[in-house]
Amino acid sequence: MTLQTFIGNFVWRKDGIDSWRILQAGDEIGDCDDFSITVSYLESNKSLIKMWLNILILRHRFYWCKSPKNDSHIILKTPKGWIDNIFPMWRDKPTGHTKIIYWPIFLVALKMLLGKLTK
């Protein structure tokens, strides 16, 4: 699955559990955190090792923010720019988002672990 295919097929649906899952082809249903972690994975050539390296060296950073509708939201920042499921294209700045706060690596790991346990 390419990034463009993923973006084209992604369907937002609140999952009810605050866990992060890497979505696979044919299962592109998730929420903002699933979107962001999947983009990180795809941008890491579908390698978990490369993805975690990108996260650990801060090439891929996740941010909690308020969406334009004032909902809690997760967005991704990479060297290409900012991206999220509301604005699924690379941007120079997180347009329309407020209260942008860096999401620490240990929280990303914890949320992904919850995603594995609740799958």
Describe the structure.
The protein is an alpha+beta fold and 119 residues long. The chain has one domain (3-117). It has four helices and six strands. It has helices at 3-9, 32-43, 48-56, 105-117, and strands at 11-12, 29-30, 61-66, 72-78, 81-83, 98-103. Strands 5-4-3-6 form a four-stranded antiparallel beta sheet. A two-stranded parallel sheet has the order 1-2. It is globular. The mean pLDDT is 93.
Keywords:
119 residues; alpha+beta; 4-stranded antiparallel β-sheet; two-stranded parallel ribbon
The gross shape turns out to be: globular
Distinct helical segment count: 4
Return the average pLDDT rounded to an integer.
Answer: 93
Stretches where pLDDT falls below 50 for ≥5 residues? none
End-to-end span in angstroms?
20 Å
Q: What string, H for helix and E for strand, traces the elements in order?
A: HEEHHEEEEH
**What is the radius of gyration?**
13 Å
Number of domains: 1
Largest sheet: 4 strands, antiparallel
The overall strand count is 6
Helical content stands at 25-40%
